[in-house]
Amino acid sequence: MSTLKGAAIIGQSGGPTSVINASAYGCIKTALENENITAVYGALNGILGVLHDNLIDMSKEDPAELALMRTTPSSALGSCRYKLKSAADDDTDYKRILEIFKKYNIRYFFYNGGNDSMDTCNKISKFMLENGYECRVMGIPKTIDNDLDLTDHCPGYGSAAKYIATSLMEIYHDARVYDTGMITVVEIMGRNAGWLTAAAALASYKGNGPDLIYLPEVDFDMDAFVARVQEIYNANKKCIIAVSEGIRDKDGKYISEYGSDMAKSVDGFGHAQLGGLAPYLANVLKAKTGAKVRGIELSLLQRCAAHCASLTDINESFAAGKGAVDNATAGITDKMVGFARTVGTDGKYVAEIKLFDLTAVANTEKKIPAEWILPNGAGLTQEFVDYALPLIQGETDLPKEDSLPRFVKLKKVKV
Amino acid sequence: MSTLKGAAIIGQSGGPTSVINASAYGCIKTALENENITAVYGALNGILGVLHDNLIDMSKEDPAELALMRTTPSSALGSCRYKLKSAADDDTDYKRILEIFKKYNIRYFFYNGGNDSMDTCNKISKFMLENGYECRVMGIPKTIDNDLDLTDHCPGYGSAAKYIATSLMEIYHDARVYDTGMITVVEIMGRNAGWLTAAAALASYKGNGPDLIYLPEVDFDMDAFVARVQEIYNANKKCIIAVSEGIRDKDGKYISEYGSDMAKSVDGFGHAQLGGLAPYLANVLKAKTGAKVRGIELSLLQRCAAHCASLTDINESFAAGKGAVDNATAGITDKMVGFARTVGTDGKYVAEIKLFDLTAVANTEKKIPAEWILPNGAGLTQEFVDYALPLIQGETDLPKEDSLPRFVKLKKVKV
To answer: Which residues of A touch B44 (CB under 8 A)?
Structure first.
């Protein structure tokens, strides 16, 4: 084991999730306990915190309060969507990062985020290697989208999937309460990969879910869609459809853009927000079927509903953060921590920590395998259910105060 | 005690809630156990089930399965929005109801619903009294809107309030994760009374809630609204606003109608669904402030999110259903079961069953007291928090299967 003594920085970036703080906490707690890590700093708003020398000292936080990060949604250290240029084109940012690393003797850099964040992490890792500055760099994944390649699944997905499946089961009961007809369209996040929308299939598997599920992996045909909805509606006066925000027609145009086009013909205020996909499809279905139609957008809640998080996801997220520190202090660098799925001696699902080259995962995008999508393109197979079900197991142990969530309040003591 | 032997009907009507089935279950279970009640029938889709002779025999359900009604959202017996005409104008429906009551020797009628349902219940009660048919009629309230008069609060409100406060706390964390500016508008149900939207104040009370809360009880002034948002946004780059779907301008016009007017200028499909209040206000704020603005509609979830129900609400809902049967079999009729708030010997909140005349509650609408609204019209006082907080206490014990809700599946055996 190669010993490297020095300080550590952890930063978070990209869209928040219910469990990204569980990962950060796994990393921070483990780093604070490691004898080779001399200080643990949080970079506020991701890499911007490094660039702006805006760091906080994690050792100054009360340990019991810090532990609440485990069940607090969103990014407690703040996030950013800052993309580093290629160092070959412009190395200004990299020089600044190196300057900060030297200033604080940073020898460990942990970056907690999705596809773009792994790109940032990878670029910093390569720059440090090329410039002979010894620093162990590890990516800690999070993304509700579950679209990072190589790893079996991503921290964040299980909790979002659990919220989506649970909510759809509840909507199922609500949407069929009257004796009158009703069509319900539920819009779910996921621009290019359909993992989140596919989670609706877990509700259908329980017999309380949507009749039809549309993913961005399959070209969307409006005529076929309307005909299929009409058929189900005619048969039982109810139809529930789960649809990904990212569905596109055969020419690659987002269906949501048709809604925006419509909204743009409205004069006056900025229009982009008027034309969501769910209201657009609801309007199409209403016009074509004459039925009562309701459009629902699950919106932000699907990525921040910590009260409905998966305990498996929380624990795995923590393990990913811990794994990053354990491996980095053991001499490993330039990797992302992910999972391999195995089967325990009891025949049950086990997720083992597995390391992947940052180069291999940066900017990747994993889609749903074609063979997990039903031949009609509007549902998922049992293979998907078998894949996703273990990820949503267990209930969060989120502490409550007055029966409302008690989320972390960091002191954020500047370094 | 006056003994009356005969069968009972229970029906549910109006919009569903997370706990209306807890009330129905309290009623059904107690009725099945009562020696004077010879049979317990469920009317499918409320009063329509009586009119169409569409009844199910509750004794044919497996007791363990039936018990799952306690934690299943929506109306397990089905609902309706059927309004009975005045018997003086047209007594056709009443004669039919009497015919069915005689056919099955119905001597107990329990109706589980909101304002309109109490009107139905009241009319049936009066018709039976006037026509000398001995039948004990009891209303069992439910409404997320909390707008029934006389009772301290309504079953259904606590769970909806808990979901709204919890979700707003989560949105609070999500919406301030970036270093860039962000305005978030959250639209909450409640057409005339602001109780649901006011629940957002519980999140603010916890320091994780909206900056501004707009209720239908206060005339909405767009200029003052924009100015206030701008001020908060300028000060800290974030502003979260909770707004009732029912806000109106000083002339009584719904603000959401301005959105619909805008949407109506779009040609093509039916437009009503395009112009929600949240996207409309988001567009106004975006145009006026230049900030990034997101509109979120909590939609159906606020009334059906059983996974986030209040245990207090579940238990009180059950008690209301049980109280209806206990009082009816004890000889009381023509009442709605409600609650009076008292203080226990431990100084804590206690809700006691209290009966109210159906005539007095039918078609009433209770609004938020003016003195509970902040002088600026954009928030709630501590009195409101003290009122609402006890209602959301305790977590649901919703049974799970594969970590997803296990909701009731009734056999619905026709009589």
So the answer is: 179
Instruction: Write out the two tokens for B54.
Output: 């569409």
Bridge pairing between strands B335-343 and B136-141: parallel
Burial (Cβ within 10 Å: 0-12, 13-18, ≥19) of residue B406:
middle
- The stretch A21-46 carries a mean pLDDT of 98
- Asked if residues B40 and B59 have their Cβ atoms less than 8 Å apart, the reply is yes
Question: DSSP states of B12-28 as a string?
Answer: E-SS--SSHHHHHHHHH
Asked if pLDDT for residue A410 goes beyond 50, the answer is yes
**A126 in helix, strand or coil?**
helix
Token duo for residue B126: 């009066």
User: Which tens digits make up the pLDDT trace of A177-206?
Assistant: 998 999 999 999 999 999 999 999 999 999
Query: What are phi and psi for residue A150, nearest 5 degrees?
Result: 75, -50
A-to-B residue pairs, Cβ atoms closer than 8 angstroms:
219
Contact B166 A16 (CB under 8 A): no
C-alpha A159/C-alpha A306 separation (Å) is: 8
Instruction: Please choose, from the candidates B242, B220, B259, B201, the residue with its C-alpha nearest in 3D space to the C-alpha of residue B392.
Output: B201
Whether the Cβ atoms of residue B380 and residue B371 lie closer than 8 Å to each other: no
Give the tokens for residue B220: 């909405």
CA distance A374 to A380: 5
Name the band, by pLDDT with cuts 50, 70 and 90, for residue B275. low
User: B310 contacts in A (CB within 8 Å)?
Assistant: 403
Closest chain B CA to residue A80? B178
Q: Which of B171, B275, B286 sits opposite A304 (nearest CB)?
A: B171
Look up the pTM and report it.
0.96
Across the interface, whether the CB atoms of B266 and A263 are under 8 A apart is answered yes
- 3-class SS string, B93-104: HHHHHHHHHHHC
Spot the catalytic one: B116, B145, B147, B211.
B145
Alpha-carbon distance A45 to nearest alpha carbon in chain B (angstroms): 7
Q: How far apart are CA A157 and CA B404, in angstroms?
A: 16
Best CA proximity match to B187, nearest among B158, B159, B220, B155: B220
Please give the ipTM for the structure prediction.
0.96
Q: Answer whether A266 sits within 8 Å of B267, measured CB to CB.
A: no
Report the catalytic residues of A.
145
Residues 6+ apart with CB under 8 A from B236: none
The answer for residues whose C-beta is within 8 angstroms of residue B178's C-beta and 6 or more apart is: A45, A78, A79, A80, A81
Whole-number Å distance between alpha carbons of B338 and B148? 9
A16: phi then psi, degrees, rounded to nearest 5: -70, 165
Strands B335-343 and B212-214: unpaired
Q: What is the pLDDT of residues A12-30, one digit of tens each?
A: 999 999 999 999 999 999 9
Q: Measuring CA to CA, how many Å separate B268 from each of A157, B261, B327?
A: 38, 14, 56
